[in-house]
């Protein structure tokens, strides 16, 4: 009964959680420019009901159990991350301009640490490439990507004048038709859509690899360069571990070289959008199953393809979200942040983790599972006191513990 009562309270409570500040007037529902609930087609997703409950639970938990922190971060000053479909046209254009601004600012990573870095956006791609083995299938996976996405949001705001917050892409909303979503429809207010027909020598993308596939994603109708707002987007780094057969190799391929994958390899942004992938593994049923995970170990495995990964025709939302766009660098385990789509997908990864945590915040906010090195169960367990660094992308180090709550550490945000 408590749950259903909270559910009915959710809209009112969420509305009061939306701050009305001079800095971000668009966050107020009553001042929205062109928002209509009809953008969602009237479909209510079970996973979104869980998220609504989580939003309420988190505020109650923080207010009653974390009073010192609640003084610093509460409904009066918390910022709200929204789905791209709920952005007004001008909000979308402002976001797109800010992302493009990052590709025009100089890099902060020295040439000696990234010979191929040409712009500020590349700093983020280089950081992800350098740390791939210690931030995936590890205990810091969720916390590190939460911090990475937040840092990107800060740089959009601090260095490119963006006034809003990082959007997310609600996979199950568009699982049957990702190219019909406002984020991927290829319009002037999208993140560009599918690639042009191309890469015709490729018949499938193999999960986990082309050489030893457990799941074969059939090639879609794209594979070539995108048009639309990101038609001139520079992809400079990688590939390292791509499923695309149509990408020239990086000048630095030696895994013993600390700059492996970081040589200059300029090319266009390519995609091969796959409804075949999104419809099977990012639908509402799959997300709800993930959210019903009883403990962090179950959640962690389910999100990343099960245990063992990708057996029994199961991809998991993390890999399936990446292969919803696929292509180059989207299909590359190391270089995937080179497609600005990455942060829409990881916004949603973070939202689903936040939902799971706040279904039961007292026992789940600090729940952690996994070791410190990819695919190495003998490596030390990750600890809340472990430090996370973002290299030259963002100058401040935090601990995993700092990143466990979206209302703790450096963070103060929620999702709607
Ligand atoms: Cu990653």
Automatic annotation (TrEMBL):
It comes from the Eukaryota. It holds the Pfam family Tyrosinase. Keywords: Metal-binding, Oxidoreductase, Signal. Residues 1-17 form the signal peptide. Residues 136-153, 339-350 form the Tyrosinase copper-binding domain. InterPro entries: Di-copper_centre_dom_sf (IPR008922), Tyrosinase/Hemocyanin (IPR050316), Tyrosinase_Cu-bd (IPR002227). GO terms for molecular function: metal ion binding; oxidoreductase activity. SUPFAM superfamilies: Di-copper centre-containing domain. The keyword tRNA-binding does not apply. The keyword Thylakoid does not apply. This is Di-copper centre-containing protein.
């Amino acid at each position: 009964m408590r749950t259903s009562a909270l559910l009915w309270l959710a809209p009112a409570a969420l509305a009061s959680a939306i701050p009305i500040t001079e800095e971000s007037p668009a966050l107020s529902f009553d001042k929205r420019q062109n928002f209509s609930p009809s953008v969602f087609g009237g479909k209510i997703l079970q996973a979104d009901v869980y998220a609504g409950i989580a939003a309420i639970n988190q505020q109650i938990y923080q207010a009653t159990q974390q009073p010192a922190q609640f003084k610093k971060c509460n409904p009066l000053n918390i910022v709200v991350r929204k789905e791209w479909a709920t952005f007004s046209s001008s909000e979308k254009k402002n976001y797109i301009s800010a992302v493009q601004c990052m590709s025009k600012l100089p890099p902060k990573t020295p040439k000696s640490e990234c010979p191929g870095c040409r712009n500020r956006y590349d700093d983020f791609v280089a950081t992800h490439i350098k740390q791939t083995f210690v931030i995936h299938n590890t205990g810091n996976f969720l916390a590190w990507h939460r911090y990475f996405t937040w840092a990107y949001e800060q740089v959009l705001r601090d260095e490119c004048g963006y006034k809003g917050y990082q959007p997310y892409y609600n996979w199950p909303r568009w699982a049957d038709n990702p190219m019909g979503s406002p984020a991927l429809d290829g319009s002037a207010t999208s993140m560009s859509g599918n690639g042009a027909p191309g890469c015709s020598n490729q018949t499938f993308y193999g999960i986990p690899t082309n050489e030893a596939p457990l799941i074969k994603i059939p090639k879609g109708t794209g594979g070539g360069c995108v048009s639309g707002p990101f038609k001139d987007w520079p992809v400079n780094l990688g590939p390292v571990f791509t499923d695309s057969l149509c990408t020239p190799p990086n000048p630095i391929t030696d895994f013993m070289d600390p700059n492996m994958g970081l040589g200059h390899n300029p090319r266009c942004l390519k995609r091969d959008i796959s409804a075949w992938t999104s419809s099977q593994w990012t639908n509402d049923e799959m997300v709800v199953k993930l959210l019903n995970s009883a403990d962090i170990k179950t959640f962690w495995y389910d999100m990343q393809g099960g245990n063992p990964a990708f057996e029994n025709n199961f991809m998991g939302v993390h890999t399936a979200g990446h292969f919803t766009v696929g292509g180059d660098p989207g299909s590359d385990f190391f270089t995937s942040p080179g497609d600005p789509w990455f942060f829409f997908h990881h916004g949603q990864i973070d939202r689903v983790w936040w939902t799971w945590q706040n279904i039961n915040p007292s026992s789940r906010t600090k729940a952690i599972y996994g070791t410190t090195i990819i695919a190495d169960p003998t490596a030390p367990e990750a600890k809340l006191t472990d430090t996370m660094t973002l290299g030259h992308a963002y100058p401040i180090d935090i601990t995993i513990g700092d990143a466990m709550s979206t209302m703790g550490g450096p963070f103060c945000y929620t999702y709607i």
